[in-house]
Amino acid sequence: MTRIVAANKDSISEAAAMLRDGKIVVLPTETVYGLGANALDSEAVAKIFEAKNRPNFNPLIVHVMDKDSASALVEMNEEAHKIADTFWPGALTLILPRKENTGVSDLVTAGLSTLAVRVPSHKVMREVIKQAGVPIAAPSANNSGEPSATTPAHAAQSLGDGVSYVLAAGACDVGLESTVLDLSGDIPIILRPGVVTLEDIKNYLENVEIDASTKDKPKSPGQLLKHYAPNIPVRLNAVDVKEGEALLAFGSIKFMGLKSGGPVKDMPTSAFRNLSENADLNEAAKNLFMMLRDLDKPEHKAIAVMNIPDEEIGVAMNERLARAAQK
Ligand code: TXA
Ligand code: MG
Fold it and tell me: Residues 185, 279: one domain?
């Protein structure tokens, strides 16, 4: 049985105690829900891989309170300091050379010489990290390959019996996973786009690039081709809705029709979601994984998704959707 418990003083202390005790707990963050464990405890970290069915070559992000705690675990260069001072706490993960003898389990890094670190801004998550008193390894709280969970119920549903405790704090604000920025190589590379965009980072690091190879030879082991995928097919850039399809809309549906005749507004509500009626990209990002899961029902032949502008957080949404649509 999975307990879903609203975050309050007592449940936060209970979650922190469970983490200290080597257990895994689902935790809220501003991006997506995370499945947390004490990063110093290999047995605890192994439970994450088991609960998620995650391949053990895919390394985890370690969550800490502040830049100082991060620099105890990784070699911070000048660029890292600049970026950390600007974007932490927040939805940005840094890949940096890991330090020796920090106690971080080798399972966390999957044998790599680098470590992913993030300082989250979510109040509940920060209080849990503080009370646990250890760095927290946490991937997204979903079964490997499924869309990330952005609500407590979706995390519980996706992980099933693999997890016993969900610390619940409503829907996540951002709705997409953190931007992953690799500062361990010659030039800064964005391995995973997110709400902190290429343009945002360019204001501080002129020579940053988006990893163009993510699609064929991912540098981040987690950026496997088929990822973030619902159980039914996803059809992108839809301008109409085919027989049996569900529709994930973005903006106005006034001019959109059903292939079988009639307007989209006549669709059953169970087959229709709108990411943002006002075409607001941030609202759409917050809703993306939640609505994909809502529409992921065997009675639908596919999910038709309307075009989303490739700008701001839309870049990250389109990257996730392209993976979801991979056959
Ligand atoms: O917003 C987020 O980042 C959420 C919340 C819970 O913090 N976490 C998250 O973790 O999305 P996960 O494990 O689902 O995605 C982490 C990504 C994976 O693609 C993984 O391969 C990559 O980061 N990664 C982790 N360590 C890495 C490393 N040392 N080098 C390259 N990529 C790494
Ligand atoms: Mg994930």
Answer: no
Q: Show which of 210, 245, 275 is a domain's final residue.
A: 210
- 57 alpha carbon to ligand 1 midpoint, in Å? 12
Q: Are residues 140 and 83 part of one domain? A: yes
Measured distance CA(140)–CA(270) in Å, rounded = 26
CATH classification of the domain holding 256: 3.40.50.11030
Ligand 1 close to Cβ of residue 317 (< 6 A): no
Question: pLDDT tens for residues 250-303?
Answer: 999 988 889 888 888 889 999 999 999 999 999 999 999 999 999 999 999 999
Q: Enter the pTM of the model.
A: 0.94
With the most atoms of ligand 1 within 8 angstroms of its CB, the residue from 25, 32, 61 to mutate is 61
Closest CA to 208 of 182, 169, 171, 234: 182
CATH number for 154? 3.90.870.10
* Same domain, yes or no: 20 and 169: yes
HEC string of 240-281 equals: EECCCCEEEECCCCCCCEECCCCEHHHCCHHHEEECCCCCCH
Residue 256, ligand 1, Cβ within 6 A: no
Asked if residue 178 and residue 47 are part of one domain, the reply reads yes
Q: What proportion of the chain, given as a percentage, has pLDDT over 70? A: 96
Q: Which domain holds residue 311?
A: 234-324
How does pLDDT run across 60-118, given as a tens digit for each residue? 999 999 999 999 999 999 999 999 999 999 999 999 999 999 999 999 999 999 999 99
Pairing of strands 61-63, 114-118: parallel
What angle (nearest 5°) sits at the alpha carbon of residue 119, between those of residues 117 and 123? 145
User: Candidates 220, 319, 320: which one to mutate for ligand 1, based on the most atoms within 8 Å of Cβ?
Assistant: 220
